[in-house]
Structures are given as structure tokens and as C-alpha cells.
Amino acid sequence: MGFAKDILCIGAGYVGGPTMAMIAARCPHYKVTVVDINHARIAAWQSDQLPIYEPGLDEVVRQARGRNLFFSTQVEQGIRDADIIFVSVNTPTKTFGQGAGRAADLQYWEKTARQILEHADRNKIVVEKSTLPVRTAEAMERILNANTKNIRFEVLSNPEFLAEGSAITDLEAPDRVLIGSKETPEGITARRAIVDIYANWVPRENIIESNVWSSELSKLAANAFLAQRISSINAISALCEKTEADVDEVAYAIGKDSRIGPKFLKASVGFGGSCFKKDILNLVYICHSYGLGEVAAYWESVVKINEWQESRFVRTILESMFNTVAGKRIALLGFAFKANTGDTRESPAIYIARGLAEERAEVVVTDPQALANARDDLTDMGDRVHFESDPYTAAEGAHALAILTEWDVYRQLDYARIFASMEQPAFLFDGRNILDHQRLFELGFNVFPIGKAALKHF
Ligand code: NAD
Ligand code: UGA
User: Fold this and answer.
1) Could you tell me which CATH class the domain 212-458 is placed in?
2) CA-based, 20 to 30 A from 1: which of 32, 36, 139, 289?
3) pLDDT tens across 2-54, in order?
4) Phi-psi region for residue 207, left (φ > 0), alpha (ψ -120 to 50) or beta?
């Protein structure tokens, strides 16, 4: 059977894989191919053991794989065949040269553009799915259209707003899909082709069209606003701990104001994930490069508060355990940067595990999905950190537990059993405020939540 369109996605990661699986599942009349230079990753996408853990993903992939969804390492062939190319490669923070530590490292993006240029033999639409600095499309279009093959490329921006752990529901019913293009006739025609894809399942009023620069900047701004809410409530959590206000009560009260709204007001040990910090620092860099120092400083403070919140958590553990954790076993419950994912990129747990190990604690990490990544993240720590899949075993003989990821399974543990197996006095630091603190206190724990008065037996 012939397909109406041939869609390629370069980059089979957390975004490329699930996004394209959803497009394929909802658009059986399009052929969707996802390519990557990482052979192991592609092999995993072709197997029953997908390379990322995401609730509902297996089902969507199973529905379309082999029918109109294909995973391959044949990047060049994919480019030749495609009408539309989504680029979803990684865009990490630059670690070298000018802008190191802030600017986006665009080497993967640029390499992809040059590869597209080399292997394309007809006009194509190229779609930025990766998160990129505002005005990247302009640079990409320059590279692509500097060809002597008489081929035209339209570069569009279609940023992805899915969150890990809820990627499938986010993709099924997105708050909005944003598609930016140039306002030229060719740009508008290309934009229509992308709108047509999403219109197969997304209500038309949820598909927003804009100019390409607004689209690029909206992605950075959305992440900055979301992260800013977390840093705001985390800043308030510190004040709550000093004043006996309860941060959850404050968040509930302010979130009831319809102008503020209830979401993203959960105080925590800090935000993690591959994007918030990277995208804000990128925004900061762009602001500086346009001479907007005050705007840059404003957004940078969101990241600074987050780092402070993480270090504050380590300090709380240290100070409340009589200023020494040396030789004490501390079990970290959760290592993923949030629940329902195995992803540990920029997880606050990395910083906290390292901070405690530096204080010579015996750190034990447990997590239902992220242990393999945790091992990689802490590989240089040697035997100062241990890994344990069973939370009860992790807690055995521990002086303290610290909840670092809000996995449901940690709400349901038998804490009486855990308490009985721990060293006394037993401490519990709830970095996600997910447990019943009063009950734990009654069981005998000394409980230290975020943004609430501690419950202590001494
Ligand atoms: P990822 O690291 O999981 O995946 C990127 C993939 O691109 C890797 O598998 C890598 O091997 C591949 N790749 C790199 N260069 C390539 C090349 N030249 N040819 C073929 N493949 C190549 O990254 P991700 O989390 O999927 O993020 C991708 C982009 O999406 C980033 O810009 C990120 O900011 C953005 N984003 C991520 C999320 C998220 O939840 N992770 C959400 C929204 C947006
Ligand atoms: C975030 C955005 O929510 C997505 O819209 C965006 O597409 C994505 O970044 C991206 O660009 O990569 P993600 O990082 O997957 O998604 O997950 P979030 O749910 O946003 O959580 C980020 C971090 O903030 C987690 O560590 C989480 O635990 C923390 N968080 C979140 C809080 O501490 N409090 C909250 O109220 C919400």
C-alpha cells in the first residue's frame, strides 16, 4: 500500500520516539520512520524492551510498529525518502568555548542539517522538534538553502511540550500544538502540511499557528515559566520552615486564585529533568547576547533558587542528624527526576547522593525504574554508594530515609516494618511531601518535610 506522506524523524530519544509513535498510531495513512545514529537505541525500539520507560508507550508502539512505524539506523536513506523531516536530536548545554555552561550546543543540530543537505534530492520541509534558541531556524535555513542542487527547504518550528511520565496522555490530548513558519506563501503551505498531521486527532482550536520566532521563543518561555513557579514555591517553602506555615496549605490557598491556578506549585527537593535548567540557561544566554542583563539575571535566579533548594536539603539532613552523617547509612528512596520515568537527567538525587557521600555517609539508592541510570550517574563514586532494588532492604539498618522521587510505591510501604529495621533514632526526610507525616511521627520517626515544621522526638 502506498502512503500519503513519508515522515522522517531524526533522533529516537524521549521526544522523537513517543511523538512519532503517536503520529503513526493516529495517522495510518502516513509512513513514519525514526532514525538514530545510536544502534543500541534503535535495536531497543525494535524490541519488546523499549529504550525508555513511559506509561502507555508500549501499547502505542505495538499498534503501529511494522505497519506504518519503523525504526532504523539508515539516516541517509530516510532523508532521501522523506517529504517531511522532524529533527529531534539532543541540544544540551554547551560545555566548552564561548557560552560554555549556558548556550545551547547546536553541533548535533547543525550536523543533522548538513546531513539533510547532503542526501536530499528534492524539496523538503524540515521541522525543529528539538528545543532551540530563538532564531535558530534562520541559521538552519541558511545552511540548507545554500545548495547548488536547486532544492528548497522550508524550516519550521514545532516545539514539543510533553512531560516525561505523562508523555502519552500529553501527546494524545495536548493543551496545544504550536507550529511556527515564515509568513511567506511557501512558509504558510509548509505550515498547513504540519497542521494536517496533527489535525488527525488534535482539535483544530488547539493547534496554534505563529511566526517561527514566536514558536521558538514560546518553548523556552513555557519551560522558564513552569520552572519559575517551582522555584517560587520552593523559596516560600524555606520561609514556611522558619515560620511554622505549611507550604502545602499556602500552595492550596494561593492556587485557588484562578489567576494563579493550582498546578506546578508542589514544593520539592528541587526540579530536575533534562530541560528546565538547560532551557533557562539558554534563555539567559540569549538575553545577555541582546544586552538584556536584567532580564537574564531575573531568569537565572530561577536556577539559582533551585540549586539552593537542593543544597538546603542536604544541609537539613546533616544538621538534624547531629551535624554528622559519616558512617551512617542513608537510604535514598527514588532517583528518577520525577515519578513514572527512569530518566535521571539533572535529577536532584544526583546532587544529594553526592553531597551525602562527600560527608562520608553510606548512601543506598533505590528506585523502581531508574537504578541503571543511577549507576551510570554515580559510577565515579565507587563503593561509597550502593544500589538496591528492594526499598525494604535499602532501609534495613539505615539511620535515615530520604524520599527523593514521588513514586506511588513509596506512599504504600509498610513504614512500621521499615522503622523496626532501622537504627535509632530513625530520621525521615520527605523531599516530596508525599507521606503522612503525623502517622510516621507516631510510629517513632523524626520527620522532616519540605516547607513544614519538623516533627521531632527530641
Ligand atoms: P535524547 O538525548 O533522548 O535523544 C536525542 C537522540 O538524538 C539521541 O538518541 C541521539 O543519538 C540522537 N542523535 C543525535 N545526533 C544525531 C544525528 N546526527 N543523527 C541521528 N540521530 C542523532 O533527547 P530528548 O530528551 O529526546 O530531547 C530531544 C530534544 O527535545 C531536545 O532539544 C530537548 O530539549 C527537547 N525536548 C525534550 C523533552 C523531554 O521530555 N525529554 C520534552 C520536550 C522537548
Ligand atoms: C517539562 C515540561 O513540563 C514540559 O512541558 C516540557 O516539554 C519538558 O519539560 C521539556 O521541555 O523537556 P518534564 O521535565 O518532563 O517536563 O517534567 P515536569 O513534570 O515538568 O517536572 C520537571 C521537574 O519539576 C521534576 O523534577 C518535578 O518533580 C519537578 N516539579 C514539578 C516540582 O518540583 N513541583 C511541581 O509542582 C512540578
Assistant:
1) alpha beta
2) 36
3) 899 999 999 999 999 999 999 999 999 999 999 999 999 999 999 999 999 99
4) beta
CA of 370 to the centre of ligand 1 (A): 19
Q: Within a 10 A sphere around the Cβ of 92, how many other Cβ atoms?
A: 14
Instruction: Check pocket membership of 231 for ligand 1, CB cut-off 6 A.
Output: no
Task: List the chain domain ranges.
Answer: 5-202, 212-458
Options 3.20.20.70, 1.10.10.60, 3.40.50.720, 1.10.486.10; CATH for 5-202 is 3.40.50.720
Distance (angstroms) between ligand 2 centre and the Cα of 319 equals: 29
150: left (phi over 0), alpha (psi -120 to 50) or beta: left
Rounded-to-10 torsion of CA 93, 99, 102, 107: -20
pLDDT value at 168 more than 80 = yes
Q: Find out whether 410 and 391 touch, Cβ atoms under 8 Å.
A: yes
Using CA atoms, how far apart are residues 314 and 319, in angstroms rounded to an integer?
Answer: 9
Backbone dihedral angles phi then psi of residue 219, each to the nearest 5 degrees:
-65, -50
Give yes or no for a contact between 447 and 418, defined as CB atoms under 8 angstroms apart. no
Starting at the edge strand found earlier in the chain, the sheet holding 400-403 runs 385-387, 362-366, 329-333, 400-403, 427-430, 446-449
Cβ–Cβ under 8 Å, residues 349 and 404:
yes
* pLDDT category of residue 307 using cuts at 50, 70 and 90: very high
Strand partners, 155: 126
Question: Rounded to an integer, what distance in angstroms lies between the CA atom of residue 214 and that of residue 181?
Answer: 9
Residue 84 phi/psi, 5-degree rounding, is -125, 130
Of all protein residues, whose CA lies closest to atom 30 belonging to ligand 2? Answer: 271
**How confident is the model at residue 136, as a pLDDT?**
87
- Cell numbers given for 13: 530519544
Query: Does residue 275 carry a catalytic annotation?
Result: yes
Q: How many residues does the chain have?
A: 458
Q: Which atom of ligand 2 is nearest to the CA of 229?
A: 36
pTM attached to this predicted model: 0.96
Yes or no: say if 357 and 292 are a contact pair by the CB < 8 Å rule: no
Same fold across 5-202 and 212-458: yes
**Can you tell me the distance from the alpha carbon of 81 to that of 149, in angstroms, rounded to the nearest whole number?**
16
Contacts of 22 by beta carbon, 8 Å cutoff, 6+ apart: 60, 168, 171, 172
**The one-letter amino acid at 412:** Q
Q: How far is the CA of 16 from the centre of ligand 1 (A)?
A: 7
Cell numbers linked to 158? 514545532
Task: Give the pLDDT confidence of 198-207 residue by residue, as tens digits.
Answer: 999 999 999 9
